[in-house]
Each structure stands twice: as structure tokens, then as C-alpha cells.
């Protein structure tokens, strides 16, 4: 009974790869264009990790198009999180073609427990489609994003999901979201990591 669109963002999957436009604001504008083009009026926006940052930007820039948000393993600002500056430096050192060992290690770092290996291989293969320049630009946009002074302006209802073993996003990040977003609900997945929707797909969908 859910009419859902799963969007491959610019530069990702099989979408176009323009030379520029990889900030959260650019990605949010793409979603707004899609909603308006297909006359959907408004929608619930679900975003994981970087997608959660984009979801926040979307709700701030397009409140009239936002029925509600689901923010999964994300934060209002990631730039000061443990390990993020080091990860950014690691990404800056990459060159095309994308290194499969890097992508494999990156995807594994999002998990607290193993998932189906066939599905996992699909995820790595999809990650390999992202050009290094896109990966760098998108991560730079993510590192610059800081909505800590804005998220209290989000008026739509928000569901916040977080895995207690997340190695990227902290519990303090979640406390900030819950405190500043007035109409929010917070659910913790105790034994999952950053990609809780991969580890607990049935629970996540329910």
C-alpha cells in the first residue's frame, strides 16, 4: 500500500554524471524537480546517511513538498564526528578507477553483523559505479553541511532511526536531532550498525 520511488542520485547508479552539482542542496533540488515533474504534490522523504542530510536540506528548502521525513543513520552535521576528517583525507587520495578494495572495506564498515553475501556483492558493485570525482565532491558537500542552527525550522513529522553500533554517526548526533526537531520520534536498533536497513530490512520496512 506504499507508492515509493527509489531515486538513484546524480552521479550514482546509472544516473547522469554532470561535472558539478553534488552538494546536499543540489541533490535536494533534484528530488523537488522529480516531485513537481510527476505532480506528486508532496511526499515522505526517506534518507540514509548522506541521504539523511539531503532529506533535512529538502525539508528546509521545500516544506510545501514535505509530508514527513525518515532520517536513518544521519546527523545535522558530520564534520566533527570521530574518524570523518581521516576518512575524507583517505577519499581525497583516491584516483579513478574506483578501488574495489576501498569500496569493499567502506561497505563492510557500515555493518555490525554480516548480511546475505549475494546482496552484499550487489551493494559493492553499485558503489563501484560512482566515479571517484563524484565520491569526492559528494563527500566534500557532506563535510561542509551543518544544519544545527536550522533544523528547528523543520515542521513536518520526523522518524529518526539509528543503529547503536554505528561507526559513523554518534548517539550525540541523534540527541541533537531529537531535541531540535519538534515533531520527532526516535528508535534505536540495538545490535545494528550504520546500515541498519540492510541488517534488519523487515523491521525497517515495518
What distinguishing features does this structure have?
43% helix, 206 residues, four-stranded parallel beta sheet, alpha/beta
Q: Mind explaining what this structure looks like?
A:
The protein is α/β, with parallel strands linked by helices and 206 residues long. The protein has helices at 24-37, 50-61, 84-92, 100-108, 117-128, 132-144, 171-180, 196-199, 201-205, and strands spanning 43-48, 66-72, 158-163, 184-189. Helix 2 (50-61) links the parallel strand 1 and strand 2. Helix 1 crosses helix 2 and helix 4 (100-108) crosses helix 5. The radius of gyration is 16 Å and the shape is globular. The two termini are 12 Å apart. The mean pLDDT is 96.
User: Biggest β-sheet, characterized?
Assistant: 4 strands, parallel
Q: What pattern of helices and strands is seen along the backbone? A: HEHEHHHHEHEHH
Alpha-carbon distance between the two ends: 12 Å
Based on CA atoms alone, the radius of gyration comes out at 16 Å
- Average of the residue pLDDT scores: 96
Number of helices: 9
Oligomeric grouping of the chains:
single chain
Roughly what percent helix?
Answer: 40-55%
User: What is the strand arrangement across the widest sheet?
Assistant: 1-2-3-4
Determine the strand fraction and express it as a percent band: 5-15%
SSE-based structural type: alpha/beta
Amino acid at each position: 500500500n506504499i507508492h515509493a520511488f527509489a531515486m538513484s542520485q546524480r552521479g550514482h547508479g546509472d544516473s547522469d554524471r554532470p561535472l558539478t552539482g553534488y552538494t546536499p542542496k543540489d541533490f535536494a533540488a533534484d528530488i523537488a524537480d522529480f516531485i513537481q515533474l510527476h505532480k506528486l504534490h508532496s511526499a515522505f522523504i526517506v534518507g540514509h546517511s548522506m541521504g539523511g542530510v539531503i532529506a533535512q536540506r529538502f525539508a528546509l528548502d521545500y516544506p510545501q513538498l514535505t509530508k514527513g521525513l525518515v532520517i536513518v543513520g544521519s546527523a545535522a552535521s558530520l564534520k566533527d564526528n570521530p574518524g570523518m576528517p581521516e576518512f575524507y583525507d583517505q577519499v581525497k587520495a583516491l584516483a579513478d578507477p574506483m578501488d574495489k578494495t576501498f569500496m569493499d572495506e567502506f561497505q563492510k564498515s557500515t555493518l555490525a553483523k554480516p548480511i546475505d553475501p549475494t546482496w552484499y556483492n550487489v551493494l559493492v558493485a553499485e558503489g563501484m559505479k560512482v566515479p571517484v570525482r563524484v565520491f569526492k565532491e559528494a563527500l566534500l558537500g557532506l563535510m561542509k553541511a551543518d544544519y544545527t542552527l536550522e533544523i528547528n525550522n523543520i515542521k513536518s513529522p520526523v522518524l529518526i532511526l539509528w543503529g547503536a553500533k554505528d561507526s559513523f554517526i554518534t548517539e550525540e548526533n541523534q540527541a541533537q536531532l531529537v531535541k531540535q526537531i519538534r515533531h520527532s520520534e526516535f528508535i534505536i536498533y540495538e545490535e545494528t550498525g550504520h546500515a541498519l536497513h540492510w541488517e534488519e530490512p523487515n523491521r525497517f520496512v515495518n
